[in-house]
Specification:
InterPro entries: PcG_WD-repeat, WD40/YVTN_repeat-like_dom_sf. Keywords: Repeat, Transcription, Transcription regulation, WD repeat. The chain has a domain of 88 residues: Thrombin, subunit H (Beta Barrel). It contains no helices and eight strands. Strand 7 and strand 8 form a beta hairpin. The chain is globular and about 45 Å long.
Length: 138
């Protein structure tokens, strides 16, 4: 039978071939070294900062009305960098993602049950933007 589709090389930003070794170097072997609980609420999301290589050991968690950033230390411990606690006790954060502005400043985007997306500037520790999502009913 004739092929259904034809594969062609893709061109554009982000489509170039990755260069590197597929053989692990052993410099970043991972093993369980500690467990961490955060308050009385379950964690719904964890996100590592792959947006900037300078922060390869920084991650964030979301759960309850709180989003917290951590740094993984070489000895296996965790250091709390910043904690953002929403004023609304009924808020429950379910998702988060890392981003950066044009200057390379790390931004943390978090959203939850009250349909508000919060963009947090991690360099200043302040709320950068708050976006309310409207619900359309047809």
């Amino acid at each position: 039978p004739a092929p259904i589709t034809r594969l062609v090389p893709v061109q554009g930003l982000g489509c170039e071939a990755a260069v590197g070794s597929l053989v692990p170097s052993g410099s970043r072997e991972f093993k369980l070294c500690s467990k961490h609980t955060e308050g009385k609420h379950p964690l719904h999301a964890i996100g590592f900062n792959f947006a900037d290589a300078r922060y390869y050991d920084v991650f964030a968690t979301a759960g309850g009305n709180r989003v917290t950033t951590y740094r993984g230390l070489p000895d296996g411990n965790l250091a709390v960098l910043q904690a953002y606690i929403d004023a609304d006790d009924a808020q429950s954060f379910y998702t988060l993602s890392w981003a950066s502005d044009l200057a390379g400043t790390p931004l943390l985007v978090a959203a939850g049950s009250n349909r508000v997306i919060r963009v947090i500037n991690c360099a200043t520790g302040k709320l950068f933007k708050r976006v309310l999502l409207a619900m359309v009913v047809q």
